[in-house]
Design a protein that fits this description.
By secondary structure, the chain is mainly α. The chain has helices spanning 2-7, 11-15, 23-35, 41-54, 58-74, 78-91, 98-117, 121-135, 141-160, 164-178, 184-203, 207-221, 227-246, 250-290. The chain has 3 domains: 23-76, no CATH class; 93-178, Alpha Horseshoe (Serine Threonine Protein Phosphatase 5, Tetratricopeptide repeat), CATH 1.25.40; 180-265, Serine Threonine Protein Phosphatase 5, Tetratricopeptide repeat (Alpha Horseshoe). Helix content is 80%, strand content 0%. The chain starts with a helix and ends with a helix.
Length: 292
């Protein structure tokens, strides 16, 4: 029986080479490692490198090089990351293809972020201005998101240079372009820019104007449920309280902080009630078991 089984084996299939993982596998693994709760940047860098090697098109190559640059950024190799983003932007600088334009814009955003992290704010601003010049009038949703990000980041870099008036003007440009947008990514950009504008106004001692900006943010996003927007709402309440305190309006300041703390109190009461119900249920269970 055993001998007979051996004679029907296919030597060709036994020696057939195993296919190597393809681009889809490597880029998926790189993305998972980058986006994990506990990211593994060394692992992501390895997988991104394999994805670069396996890329079957220049768009796949750009996606892999972008992942490589992000991993390098988080590993503290900022100059290497900048070089990766630069190669993508240079390769697609003259393209009119939608996918290539997207990766061009995204590479410019990431390059600007890396330059900012190095404190090279002037260079970062120049990169954001390049993006705005190329894609500022784009109508594609993916490019609109990159434009909004470039405006927000440009405002941050201007603020870092002490050019707060220019930063405020950039935030106003962002509101004019995207203030009525309904896309989640653009709403988040608007919320961040509103909070940043309020901070810049507060730094000038323009507390009344800052409060008006925070009120705008709270009107727009006060009932939002998305975590990113809730974070900006909480920050706006805190900063509004600070601005009211600077104006000597203590009672209003306290009321704002009460609003900020209300969700925490609500959660505390809910947890206490649940514990109470759980305790009552357990006691009831014990009483029932004690009956004959």
């Amino acid at each position: 029986m055993l001998g007979g089984t051996a004679t029907i084996a296919n030597p060709a299939s036994a020696s057939a080479p195993v296919a190597s993982p393809d681009f889809g596998y490597w880029i998926s693994e790189a993305s998972k490692l980058l986006e994990a709760k506990a990211p593994n940047y060394d692992g992501a860098l390895f997988c991104a490198g394999k994805a670069v090697e396996a890329a079957g098109s220049d768009v796949e190559w750009a996606r892999a090089r972008n992942a490589d640059g992000i991993a390098q950024f988080h590993l503290g190799k900022l100059d290497v990351a900048i070089a990766a983003f630069t190669t993508i932007a240079e390769r697609f600088s003259g393209s009119i293809d939608a996918d290539r334009r997207y990766w061009h814009a995204r590479a410019l955003i990431n390059k600007g972020i890396a330059l900012g992290a190095l404190g090279r704010s002037e260079e970062a601003i120049a990169v954001y201005e390049d993006l705005l010049a190329r894609f500022g009038t784009a109508t594609e949703p993916a490019l609109r998101e990159q434009v909004a990000g470039a405006l927000r980041n440009k405002g941050v870099r201007l603020g870092a240079l002490g050019r707060s008036e220019e930063a405020i003007a950039v935030y106003d440009d962002l509101f004019a372009r995207f203030g009525t947008a309904t896309e989640p990514a653009l709403r988040e950009q608007i919320s961040v820019a509103l909070r940043n504008k309020g901070i810049a106004l507060g730094a000038f001692g323009r507390s009344e104007e800052a409060i008006a900006v925070y009120d705008d943010l709270l009107t727009r996003f006060g009932t939002a449920t998305e975590p990113a927007l809730r974070e900006q709402v909480a920050g706006a309440l805190r900063n509004k309280g600070i601005a009211l305190g600077a104006l000597g309006r203590s009672e209003e300041e306290v009321a704002v902080y009460d609003d900020l703390l209300a969700p925490l109190r609500h959660r505390h009461r809910a947890c206490t009630a649940r514990r109470g119900r759980r305790g009552a249920h357990q006691q009831g269970g014990r009483a029932r078991r004690a009956r004959p």
